[in-house]
Amino acid sequence: MVLLIVSALIIPACSNTADNTSNGRKVKLIKNEDQVYVGFLIDTLKDARWYRDKKLFEKQVKDLGGEVKTLAANGLDDVQIDQAKLLIEEGVDILVVVPHNAEIAAKIVTMAHKSGVKVISYDRLIANANVDYYISFDNEKVGELQAKEILKHQPEGNFAYVGGAESDHNAILFRQGAMNVLKPLIDKGKVKLVYDQYTNEWDPETAKKNMQALLKKRGNKIDAVIAANDGTAGGVIEALDTAGLARKVPVSGQDAELPAIHRILKGTQTMTVYKPISKIATEAAKLAVHVAEGKKVTTDTTINNGKINVPTILLEPIAVTKRNIKDTVIQDKFYTKQEVYQ
Ligand code: GAL
Predict the structure, then answer these.
(1) Atom 1 in ligand 1: which residue has the minimum CA distance?
(2) CA pair distance 113, 41, nearest whole angstrom
(3) What is the Å distance from ligand 1's center to 124 Cα?
(4) Per-residue model confidence (pLDDT) at position 211
(5) Residue 248 contacts by C-beta under 8 Å, 6 or more apart in sequence?
(6) How far is ligand 1, taken at its centre, from the CA of residue 312, in Å?
(7) For the residues of 299-336, what is the DSSP string, one character each?
(8) 203-225 residue pLDDT tens
(9) Is the beta carbon of 121 within 6 A of some atom in ligand 1?
(10) Is the predicted pLDDT of residue 167 greater than 50, yes or no?
(11) Is the CB of 47 under 6 A from ligand 1?
(12) Those residues with Cβ within 8 angstroms of residue 236's Cβ, 6 or more apart along the chain or in another chain
């Protein structure tokens, strides 16, 4: 009986802890509660870049004297929302989020704000929510760089646009950028867009199957492919290879993944877009710690997410081809010479 009453007592006390306050003071489940506690929620670790984002962001937060916990949701929206709830209950001062689904992640912002926790959208924008800050690369420019480089190799003909995951707002911006460049040529009838689809979950296998079906349907009559990232490009190139079209059909990519750099040197992929992850991780860590310390950060631009104009920091993406691998990913120590030329 005593235990029950005692436990009964604790539970209400705990329920206070559930909204992570004790006697009105916020409780942070970290050793030194004076430190800023940052929660980093990422969609997936499936694509290579996100490991780098995790490693570099965590290091930067710690170098700034903060504590950080990263949770990956494996592409599952419910899991990402539960992870946000957990970190809020653990007393994080700020949440930095790479949303799996731009719309569904709006719930995270509402939940966080109820506990006085601000939210920074990292790389991908959360839609229709009062997001506090957004930091990313200029994603429309990514699409423009991809289309421009492909047109240098194939100025006209039958083009396929292999997009990213429609749940990812970036995929819409990448496509928008590519269409900014292609549309005048489409209007003139020089370029015919024979395929224009998003790829579920950015899945390379799905991109490969879609390309195999397209090649079959069109009797291999494809002149160029604008693939939104290196993962989907890899799938497309496998399909082209089977049809004996690798090296003959130019293909774009993004993320400067090592296999893509090797494909560019081999000539089966035409270009990729390098986004210096150290830059976004460093700037985002600084932003997170400053905002968690209550500082107001002004940005030089905003992006409308369907609800508000979100204060935004946009970084520069860089096109990489055979010609400038040395001056970009090697110079930046993104890869060593050995890794690239192995
Ligand atoms: C995008 C990101 C890209 C790519 C893709 C797949 O949001 O900007 O760099 O990696 O996700 O994860």
Answers:
(1) 170
(2) 16
(3) 8
(4) 98
(5) 240
(6) 18
(7) -SEEEE-SSSEEEEEEE--EEE-GGGTIIIIITTTSS-
(8) 999 999 999 999 999 999 999 99
(9) no
(10) yes
(11) yes
(12) 162, 207, 208, 211, 225, 227, 251
pLDDT at 301 over 60: yes
pLDDT at residue 14, as a whole number: 46
Mean pLDDT of the chain: 94
Place of tokens 């490991």: 51
Ligand 1 contact, 124 CB (< 6 A): yes
Cα 185 from chain centre: 29
Query: What values do phi and psi take at 42, rounded to 5?
Result: -115, 155
Whole-structure pTM over 0.70, yes or no?
yes
DSSP 251: B
Q: Is the CB of 168 under 6 A from ligand 1?
A: yes
Encoded tokens for 37:
């506690």
Q: How confident is the model at residue 11 (pLDDT cuts 50, 70, 90)?
A: very low
Indicate which residue's Cα is closest to atom 4 of ligand 1: 229
Angle, vertex CA 123, rays to CA 121 and CA 126, nearest 5: 40
208 lines ligand 1 (CB under 6 A): no
Model pLDDT, residue 3: 44
